């Protein structure tokens, strides 16, 4: 006589992880049909390295020693994280308006899994884009000079930065009413965070009040840390903040916590 075996219920964290991976897999499958998302992520960093590092090399400089091509690579790498804001916002907004959220609501899936899955899928796309940009940087003359472990530590920092920026994009998609608003705001955020930082120029050339903004820009902190980890040239006097590690942890942590809480709250109200 056979007895029915009742399957064990999964723990909540494990269920959330499996559901998030499932949603992320769906997001990645869409990449095969729309590879333009990956192209858009890598184009800005590649254009920055080509235009600023070569075409305008004679008109740009920084107050430090070493190659300008090596100086700007950390900024180009950080651009990969910023470039993910727009596509994530557009995808989430499209799902909300296209009825996909209603279908998820009828399924036995936890609400956070939908948002986490979106960000995990886009994080994989961002890492692929980072690999392409890194290969291009090596071809253009960039080299890490501090060994394997600092190089991997820099990649880990970039991954954390990318993931925090993906939640910024997700929050933007949740709160924006139109696609036009998303495109304008995402482009504005990307441009301001990039050029009000030390990504491509020394902040000591900026006016006093604007220099203070650039020095405390989280992008400046991340870019400075990457240059130090990889042994690349840095601008003189770039360490204006009292503690670089504390600044990075506080800024990225604050961005991550605020965007996650606001996005989850907005998602609950959208599906209720």
TrEMBL record:
What's the protein's topology in the membrane? Multi-pass membrane protein
> Record's PANTHER family?
NODULATION PROTEIN J
Organism of origin is: Kitasatospora xanthocidica
Molecular function terms from GO: ABC-type transporter activity
* Transmembrane feature ranges: 36-56, 71-94, 115-142, 148-170, 182-200, 244-264
Q: Which family does it belong to?
A: Belongs to the ABC-2 integral membrane protein family.
Its name, as the record gives it, is Transport permease protein
Q: Which GO terms describe its cellular component?
A: ATP-binding cassette (ABC) transporter complex
Q: Please, one GO biological process term? A: response to antibiotic
> Could you tell me which residue ranges the ABC transmembrane type-2 domain spans?
36-267
Cited PROSITE patterns:
ABC_TM2
Q: Which InterPro entries match?
A: ABC2_TM (IPR013525), ABC2_TM_bact-type (IPR047817), ABC_2_transport (IPR000412), Nod_factor_ABC_transporter (IPR051784)
Q: Which domain of life is it from?
A: Bacteria
Q: Which UniProt keywords apply?
A: Antibiotic resistance, Cell membrane, Membrane, Transmembrane, Transmembrane helix, Transport
- Pfam family example for this protein? ABC2_membrane
List the subcellular locations. Cell membrane; Membrane
């Amino acid at each position: 006589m056979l007895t029915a075996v009742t399957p064990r219920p999964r723990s909540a964290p494990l269920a959330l992880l499996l559901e998030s991976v499932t949603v992320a897999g769906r997001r990645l499958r869409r990449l095969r049909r729309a590879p333009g998302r990956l192209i858009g992520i890598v184009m800005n960093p590649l254009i920055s390295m080509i235009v600023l590092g070569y075409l305008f090399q004679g008109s740009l400089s920084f107050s430090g020693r070493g190659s300008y091509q090596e100086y700007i690579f950390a900024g180009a790498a950080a651009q990969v994280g910023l470039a993910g804001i727009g596509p994530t916002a557009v995808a989430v907004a499209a799902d909300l308006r296209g009825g996909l959220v209603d279908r998820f609501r009828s399924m036995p899936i936890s609400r956070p899994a939908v948002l986490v899955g979106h960000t995990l899928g886009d994080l994989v796309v961002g890492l692929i884009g980072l690999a392409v940009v890194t290969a291009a940087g090596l071809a253009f003359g960039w080299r890490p000079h501090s060994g394997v472990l600092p190089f991997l530590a820099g990649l880990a920092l970039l991954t954390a930065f990318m993931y925090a920026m993906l939640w910024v994009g997700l929050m933007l998609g949740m709160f924006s009413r139109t696609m036009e608003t998303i495109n304008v705001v995402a482009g504005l955020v990307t441009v301001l965070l990039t050029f009000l930082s030390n990504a491509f120029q020394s902040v000591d050339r900026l006016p006093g009040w604007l220099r203070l903004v650039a020095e405390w820009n989280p992008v400046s902190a991340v870019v400075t840390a990457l240059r130090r980890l990889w042994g690349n040239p840095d601008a003189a006097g770039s360490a204006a903040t009292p503690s670089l590690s504390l600044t990075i942890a506080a800024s990225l942590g604050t961005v991550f916590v605020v965007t996650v809480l606001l996005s989850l709250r907005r998602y609950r109200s959208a599906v209720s």
